[in-house]
Write a structure and sequence with these properties.
Elements lengths: L5 H12 L6 E5 L10 H6 L4 E5 L3 H10 L4 E3 L2 E2 L4 E8 L16 E9 L1 H7 L5 E6 L5 H6 L8 E7 L5 H8 L5 E6 L2 E5 L9
Parallel strand pairs: 1-2, 1-7, 2-3, 4-6, 7-8
Antiparallel strand pairs: 5-6, 8-10, 9-10
């Protein structure tokens, strides 16, 4: 297990939320609940309600241990509900259901998939301030599963080293999102205002 991404999380807070109370953060691709986690900072420092979505059974079990005060969801966000094959490197790290190839040996696992709308309905989510979307190339499918849902995140932080930020921009525009900035391999989309994250 590695440390949470505290510095990165603080940057997100300073730019978008300014220590807003009673927030809600969803981390899709939560790993073990600690390694590079953004939600960790918002839960521990700002006392936000946190949902960790992690399909890998081993990583999910770690989430349950490291983040017992969160709502931990053992599933993968996608564009339809059902089941999919998750490919996971034998070394610790993210898995994917997107067919993205990993270097080295991998193992597979059948995992449950849910759409964003399914997630919101099943867990009674009424608002989301921040969605961390780190699903190893499956981001477009997740966004497709958000269409028509009344509860959408105010800010989406999507890892865009395996998915095109331009494609995400086109897919998210009908839902009212604009690109709000970039930082490292992440692109930020916001529904209400546009700011520079890297200034």
């Amino acid at each position: 297990m590695s440390k949470p991404a505290v510095g990165f999380s603080q940057r997100i807070n300073n730019v978008f939320f300014r220590s807003r109370p009673l927030g809600v953060v969803v981390e899709a691709g939560a790993l073990d609940g600690t390694t590079n986690s953004v939600g960790w900072f918002f839960e521990k420092t700002l006392k936000w309600k946190t949902y960790n979505i992690e399909p890998n059974s081993i990583s999910f079990a770690m989430c349950e241990l490291t983040r017992p005060d969160c709502v931990n969801v053992n599933a993968a966000l996608s564009d339809e509900a059902g089941f999919a094959t998750l490919e996971v490197p034998k070394k610790p790290g993210h898995g994917t259901i997107a067919g993205t190839s990993f270097r080295g040996k991998t193992v597979t696992e059948e995992v449950r998939t849910i759409t964003w709308a399914d997630f919101v309905s099943e867990y009674g989510v009424e608002k989301v301030d921040l969605l961390i979307l780190d699903v190893e190339g499956h981001e477009m499918a997740v966004v497709s599963g958000m269409k028509g849902c009344e509860v959408l995140p105010e800010v989406i932080c999507a890892e865009t080293n395996k998915t095109s930020a331009a494609d995400l921009e086109v897919a998210l525009a009908p839902m009212g999102y604009e690109i709000a900035g970039t930082y490292l391999v992440n692109t930020f989309f916001e529904r209400t205002r546009v700011r520079e994250i890297d200034s």
